[in-house]
Amino acid sequence: MADLYTVTDLHLSLPDMVHKPLLGSAPRIDILHGLNFTIASGEVLGIVGGSGSGKSTLGRVLVRLLEPTRGQVLFDGQDITHLDEAALRPLRRRFQMIFQDPMSSLNPRRTVAAIIAAPLKLQGFDDTSRRVDRALDHVGLPRAFRGRYPHELSGGQRQRVGIARAIAMEPEFILADEIVSGLDVSSQAQVLKLLDDLVRELGLTLAFISHDLSVIRRLCSQVMVLHQGRIVEHRPTQALFDAPQAAYTRELLDSIPLPDPDQPWAMLET
Amino acid sequence: MLDARGMIKRRLGLRLWLSGGWLLLLALAAILAPWIAPHDPLMQDLFTSRLPPFWMDGAEPGYWLGTDSLGRDVLSRIMHGARVALIVALIAGTATALIGATLGLIAGYFRGWADLVISRMVDIWMAFPPVLFAILLIAVMGTGLTSVVVAIIVIDWTRFARVVRAEAMSQGAMDYVASAQVAGQRRLGTMLTEILPNVLPTIVALLTLEMGIAVIVEAILGFVNLSVSTDSPTWGGMIAEGRASVHRAWWVLVFPLITLFLTVLSFSQLGEGLKDRFDPVLR
Ligand SMILES: Nc1ncnc2c1ncn2[C@@H]1O[C@H](COP(=O)(O)OP(=O)(O)O)[C@@H](O)[C@H]1O
Ligand SMILES: [Mg+2]
Question: What domains does chain B contain, in order, with CATH numbers?
Fold first, then answer.
């Protein structure tokens, strides 16, 4: 399998506005400290780590919502590290993102159809209406939901709209940042099953950020463990769970009670 | 799947009907005043001076709300005064909203140096006492409709700029804005299609409020004789004249006051009513 992403010596620092002096520029806090990894095409990569370990920051670099301070990010062989918005625009169709909080990521004053269609129109698709229908079908929402507003949906349905928006453009890569952490257990299971199906059906490459190892274990083929902006372990899921190498990984594993890994998805749905 | 939500009728919106009804009535009266006003608002006739309103002893038919000390018909003067009041409300209100909201939107969404410049300007502006500012301005520009409108814009654009800036800033931090960026939308496009619809309800509420304020400011300027020229009747001018003879002819003061009060109230209620009725988030 070819590598979709190749990340070399990735550093990122952000200005620290809290400690900004009255005059002059703010001091910078380093958030990512030299990450090296690749994401193979078709891979489902789990990114785990404690709160504040830099998972979201790393994810936002991959879809270039953030610009690295140092290092290099190759997407399908193309250097996207410092591309500006204009240069990124044609590439945007190829990597998409699903956000953690669907209440915040769906414009409250637009209908479901408008929300899913907006990126399609921006990227110049002409059969937007048909694509919206197909995306709704894919995520298991009735087409009658087209005219609804986000607040007229349940949490799980909202997150499906977020997924529909991401897959409607048929991207090669999707970043999912803690997309089930705001949902109740049964919606969680349904959304995860949906994602699992979509990855297989559409041949997606997925980076799945979570702090929940049991979810990662079910969904992902590779796991990357982040701790304070550094990769402490990055291995195939099975190997990592069988014999964690880093002390921090063992700590994470010990702190989370894991259910029986052979339990099928269906059992989780109530 | 049955969706019962559409079946539940929204609250009738009594507020919207009452306030909208009054403003519509007033607008019709203002537009049609030259044709439907019972009398020439400027015609003086000392034989008919200080006639009381229709239900009192000594009332003359045709003079529904009585006449003032110069014998001019109060109802006709209120109708003609509505023209100035509504024109000022419409033009000054809209222009103030347009200027203030645009600057606020840019400052709140683009941040950076644009925000720095606009916010400083607002701060400096607000250090001036507004009414003094308006009077000074009219003293320099001379009286007239344009001066009144400009005075209102100059005084009140900061209200829009401040509120809209704060609102745009909090909307700008939402993930749907990041999502638009992931979709490849330009920043200006995001401001217009994502942020603006979400601050629009605030702008509309402020706009109707501003129209009410414009009516008051025009009345105050009319009261101190700084509004449009004395040949066209204004509510403020009528109130000033009525005050002088309130003991002998209270109606000259009270009817314009009631009209002014109802109009300002209606404008402020209209905003709330529109929001209840049309904002999808509240539906
Ligand atoms: N805009 C920002 N400015 C300054 N620091 C930030 C900003 N965003 C995140 N951080 C810091 O970066 C670190 C990593 O954040 P994040 O990537 O969101 O972590 P995670 O998603 O793993 O919880 C945290 O310590 C956080 O405080
Ligand atoms: Mg996070």
Answer: 2-277 (1.10.3720.10)
User: Could you give the CA distance from residue A5 to residue A235 in angstroms, rounded to a whole number?
Assistant: 16
A51 lines ligand 1 (CB under 6 A): yes
Pocket lining: A55 vs ligand 1, CB cutoff 6 Å: yes
pLDDT, tens digit (0-9, with 9 covering 90-100), for A187-240: 899 999 999 999 999 999 999 999 888 889 989 999 999 999 999 999 999 999
State the closest ligand 1 atom to the C-alpha of A55, by its place in the atom list counted from 1. Answer: 22
Q: What is the DSSP letter of B77?
A: H
Three-state helix/strand/coil letters over B64-112: CCCECCCCCEHHHHHHHHHHHHHHHHHHHHHHHHHHHHHHHHHHHHHCH
Residues whose CB falls within 8 Å of the CB of residue B35, separated by 6 or more in sequence, listed in order: none
Residues of A with CB under 8 A from a CB of B: 63, 65, 85, 88-90, 92-93, 95-97, 99-101, 104-110, 118-119, 122-123, 142, 144, 149, 151-152, 165, 169
Question: What is the domain partition of chain A in residue ranges?
Answer: 3-94+171-269
Residue of A63, A142, A149 with shortest CB distance to B182: A63
A3-94+171-269 CATH choice from 3.20.20.80, 3.30.2350.10, 3.90.550.10, 3.40.50.300: 3.40.50.300
| Ligand 2 center to B68 CA (angstroms) | 72
Tell me how far apart the alpha carbons of residues B139 and B151 are, in angstroms, rounded to a whole number: 11
Give the pLDDT confidence of B73-122 residue by residue, as tens digits: 999 999 999 999 999 999 999 999 999 999 999 999 999 999 999 999 99
Chain B residues 169-208 with CB within 8 Å of chain A: 174-176, 178-187, 189, 193-194, 197-198
